[in-house]
Amino acid sequence: MTTIKDVARHAGVSTMTVSRVVNKTGYASGDTRARVEQAVAELGYVPNAVARHLRSKRTRTVALVLSDITNPFFTTIARGVEDVAAARNFAVMFCNTDESEVEENEHLQMLIERQIDGVLLVPSGSSPEPFRLLGSHNVPLVVLDRRVSSATMDEVRSDSEAGAYQLVRHLLELGHRRIAMLSGQRTISTAADRIAGYERALTEAGIPVDPALIRNDGFAVAAGRSAARHVLATRPRPTAIFAGNNFIAFGAIRAIRDLGLLVPEDVSLVCFDDVPDEWAIDPFMTCIVQDAYSMGRRAAELLLTRLTSDRPTKPRSIILPTKLVVRRSSAPPASIAAIVPS
Amino acid sequence: MTTIKDVARHAGVSTMTVSRVVNKTGYASGDTRARVEQAVAELGYVPNAVARHLRSKRTRTVALVLSDITNPFFTTIARGVEDVAAARNFAVMFCNTDESEVEENEHLQMLIERQIDGVLLVPSGSSPEPFRLLGSHNVPLVVLDRRVSSATMDEVRSDSEAGAYQLVRHLLELGHRRIAMLSGQRTISTAADRIAGYERALTEAGIPVDPALIRNDGFAVAAGRSAARHVLATRPRPTAIFAGNNFIAFGAIRAIRDLGLLVPEDVSLVCFDDVPDEWAIDPFMTCIVQDAYSMGRRAAELLLTRLTSDRPTKPRSIILPTKLVVRRSSAPPASIAAIVPS
DNA sequence: CTGTTAGCGCGTTCAG
DNA sequence: CTGAACGCGCTAACAG
User: Is residue A88 located within the same domain as residue A174?
Assistant: First the structure.
């Protein structure tokens, strides 16, 4: 391995001069500069970033800690993060927590040891432990996707409550009055916020909230299927189902098919998150679309800007708007359709 | 920031003793050990991995360099890699190349500067540059998913040729004789290998290979759609289409629908790669399934074992088997179906 | 079982 | 415009 010393010797200058030429910092006469550059080329010198980082106290590395990179929503966020990081010469480490606070803490501990410059975190739980941990080591943090109650801090997420409200308004306007809500565990803020938006829309419309129609089985296909089975067994049967994300919706579709029912003739189905374009032969799901790629980009920009600029500014809260996309999975309930043919 | 010196002073021992206790290396009397551990706890000492790495010449970090983390196949690989790495206390950095050799080289350069311990690479091109680059800095490499001609090296991939052969055999057995093949750019070995398997099956069956039925438009939905449009315009119209991956297949489905044709009544459709379970309401595509998660795991295990064990061994080539899953998108061609009703 | 010395590769500091 | 000395935080190698 060739070090800065080898280059210095080869070029007949001091290591400092090499450092200055390589980093384009400080002056160097055209002649020395040329000699150094030639030596660098001849020896195939590559600066050692580890040594540099030991001095500079900066690693130009950020971490992305999320529940599961396999989830296309998070994958897209990851892509946004990496694009911004790469453009600014930052590297990105990623860690999966599987929604476990224990794993989350272990990863954060490891990242702190590695002197990471900042963390982008999709928090698994509601405990303030991660913030304490990172805070005590002065590691800048941007919270992604989810709301945390503990304190004000940098965060980038979609407005889940408003999106859910809008989606339920849409169903109400179609004439639905018995609407089920299938969401994730309430400890995850996106699940709770979507339920809140659902309840607000119902309450505003003067419809009592029926706890039997709200499920928190989880953000996965299997959970969605089982949750849908439960709400479809209530009487009168709900005429519409609001799935807290696309996985739940796909589970719900299976449950609906299991009963031999049709969407939207027998049950309308809407959800948070669209289906990735690639997998939708013929998009039919009415949904709320969040811009995961922008979420990743914005979060990374926020973090890197904090790291790069020295003047500290107030925590920023970036709430991205969502978009309602109406397709064919939502229609007036059968009873209305029968009376008011379109 | 508290360093090992602070702990040493606080515990009234030397830094070496602290180092030994913290790393559980070497002896330490119960008493000193206790004092050191208490000092660590009281001061909230966290070892600085950067300094450690400068000494040890090891960063316990590997990089995963691939074309696009957004592609679910690569995402799943990434998950496998991270699971293995985390279990062995390695961190993973990831980089997207978008199939650009320029970006690939820039990322590798950056990773070498960071003294990464090893690289898992899905090579973008066929140039030997990445191998030269990594080789000249003694960075262990495992090539993922794709074949490289340059030299023998560690690699983990599926048997694309055999999988393609099997898929085309399946179509031939159904009675198809005019089969189109839509694949990616031939510079990508998986594209070339799948075409090779296709040609071998045809040739063995005594069917001449018709260049008009082979397209290399790319591994994406849009490419698949346009490629399918082209082959469906040839006469006689192919009775079956083999899509080089699932994206291409989804593009093909759209092109088939554009023409008002049905799968499998008018055209059978088969492809490499399954559709992620979450997005298939009702799986219908006959396909070759590769185990992306295992691919990631195996590759990471191979790399980390090389890094951990000192004795160097011969390059290993791990070729994972693929599995044919027959579903409803493949059926006998119409002419046969008419003659031989099932 | 514990401490001392030295140095990983680089960049800041301060002289020249 | 250039160089010498020093130290970032840690651990290998050697004493004791």
Answer: no
Looking at the structure, do residues A38 and A150 belong to the same domain, yes or no?
A: no
The pTM for the full model equals: 0.94
Q: Are A8 and A14 in contact (CB under 8 A)?
A: yes
CB contact under 8 A, A47 and B82: no
Give B278's contacts in chain A (Cβ within 8 Å). 221, 246-247, 250
Question: What SS3 class is residue B84?
Answer: helix
Cα separation, A158 vs A295, in Å, equals 8
Per the domain annotation, does A337 fall within a domain? no
Asked if the Cβ–Cβ distance from A115 to B48 is below 8 Å, we say yes
Number of independent structural domains in chain B: 3
Picking from A40, A70, A245, A263 by the largest number of B CB atoms within 10 A of its own CB, the best residue to mutate is A70
What is the Cα–Cα distance from A8 to B254, expressed in whole angstroms?
Answer: 62
Residues A298 and A286 in one domain: no
In a domain, B341, yes or no: no
Tell me, yes or no, whether A88 and A180 share the same domain: no
Q: Which nucleotide is nearest to A14 (CA to C1')?
A: D3
Q: Residue A166: which H helix or E strand, with range?
A: helix A160-174
Q: Which nucleotides of D are covered by protein (CB under 7 A)?
A: 1-5, 7-13
Task: Give the structural domain span for A208.
Answer: 160-290+325-332
Nearest nucleotide (CA of A1 to C1'): C9
- CA distance to A145, A238, A274, A283, A336, per residue, from A326 (Å): 23, 20, 11, 10, 19
Asked if the structure places residue B17 within a domain, the reply is: yes
Q: Residue B279 carries which DSSP code?
A: G
**Protein residue closest to C5, using CA and C1':** B16
Within-domain flag for B340: no
- pLDDT digit string (tens) for chain A, length 342 residues: 789 988 888 888 888 888 888 888 777 777 788 888 888 998 889 999 999 999 999 999 999 999 999 999 999 999 999 999 999 999 999 999 999 999 999 999 999 999 999 999 999 988 889 999 999 999 999 999 999 976 789 999 999 999 999 999 999 999 999 999 999 999 999 999 999 999 999 999 999 999 999 999 999 999 999 999 999 999 999 999 999 999 999 999 999 999 999 999 999 999 999 988 888 888 999 999 999 999 999 999 999 999 988 777 899 999 999 999 999 999 999 877 666 554
Q: How far is the CA of A43 from the C1' of C10 (A)?
A: 18
